[in-house]
Amino acid sequence: MQRHQSQSAGPLAGLKVVDLTHVMAGPTCTLMLADMGADVIKIEKWPNGDDTRHSVPPKIGDEAASFLMMNRNKRGIVLDLKTAGGKEVLRRLIASADVLVENFAPGAMERLGFGYQELHEEFPALIYCSLSGFGRTGPYKHRRGFDLVAQAMSGIMSFTGERPDGPPVKCGPPLSDITAGLLACMGILGAYTHRLKTGEGQWVETSLFEAALVQTYWQSTIALATGTAPRAMGSAHPLNAPYQAFEASDGWLVVGGANNKNWLLMLEALGATELASDPRFVTGADRMAHLKELEAVLSQRFCTRTRAHWLAALEEKGVPCGPVHDMLEALSDPQTLAREMVVEVEHSTLGPVRTIGLPIKFSATPGKVRSGAPVYGEHTREVLSEYGFDESQIEALEKEGAIVLASSRREELA
């Protein structure tokens, strides 16, 4: 079987991944694998496909922008796994796969006949990765999970916000979804290393709940050490000060003056060296104990000059600092562009589409954003042909309703 020609770049070139994931956490995992060169075959459900196809607005042309972001570099096929033909196709793909990734509801894969135990007996080298809301063990193993729920139950929403007595606040990005995807990708690579040594596959699993918990290292440290639950502090740090946002005369900036060296350098930049001997602020512990007073004193200084003035003064002293960007500013920042974190990729129907780039750089085997997200059923015929299905068999599968071809889908929507 010939490897798909676009899968030539990256350290995972040649790795074959069957992607049964949808929405955010699973697609983040397979996106990382695809960006590093794996041949990821994304299997969408019939009749509506991945739910992110319907997360609109915004759209780019006829396609949901959210789907385009999460599924570039993947080949897309459509299977109805409730049909015998759909199951036959999936089993043939799995037989040649290195990795299977799924984030179905608990028990769904077993009911379809593709649970880990069954597949491990037939394909012992397969790496089988599952993402779920709460994991496959424990009292909540049967619960469905969402990022909002994970952020709430992990404690994150209790210490996010402007003030300790304020309402619970969710972090803007889907923190647990993205982190779970990254953890799953890391787990797959760990299992792949083990397989290279032993030839053995295994089950890798993580959850949104655990992914949210690992974002609480500092707050968990405080809770476990003191028996007190941390509360919201705005942009301030729970262990170091000053390490937060301040408002200049024309906008916001952040300053990392947390350790004593940076604290003293920050005071030089502010022209406020007298604060170094203020007994409230001499040590890090002193500054944390008098954080509100420290914030008030520094805020009075920062509001007197422009953000550009303070950033230049702080950078001259070597104090970590930066402007608070909105998303358009962040995406157009020269460092973002220099690191190729916004790139253009060719989509089969839309032409050039901008997307986020690969955040991991390899000196010898660089990954690359090679292709746009697939339209619904775009690669069904191509993939089935690669895996030994002839035209008559493909036609029979389509007639059964087991597969969807991009051409027939377009005709249906016309």
Properties at a glance:
414 residues; alpha/beta; Rossmann fold; formyl-coa transferase, domain 3; 18 helices; 14 strands; elongated; disordered N terminus
Describe this structure in words.
This protein has 414 residues and is of the alpha/beta class. The protein has two domains: 16-214 and 336-413, Crotonobetainyl-coa:carnitine coa-transferase, domain 1 (Rossmann fold); 243-326, 2-Layer Sandwich (formyl-coa transferase, domain 3), CATH 3.30.1540.10. The two termini are 35 Å apart. The strands form four sheets. Strands 8-7-6-1-2-5-14 form a seven-stranded mixed beta sheet, sandwiched between helices. A hairpin with a 2-residue loop joins strand 9 and strand 10 (251-256). The model is unreliable at 1-7 (pLDDT under 50). The protein has helices at residues 25-35, 65-70, 84-95, 108-112, 116-122, 147-153, 175-198, 208-213, 217-226, 260-270, 284-289, 291-302, 307-317, 327-332, 334-338, 380-386, 391-400, 406-413, and strands spanning 16-20, 39-44, 59-60, 63-64, 74-79, 99-102, 127-132, 203-207, 243-248, 251-256, 321-323, 342-347, 351-356, 403-404. The protein has 18 helices and 14 strands. It is elongated, with a radius of gyration of 25 Å.
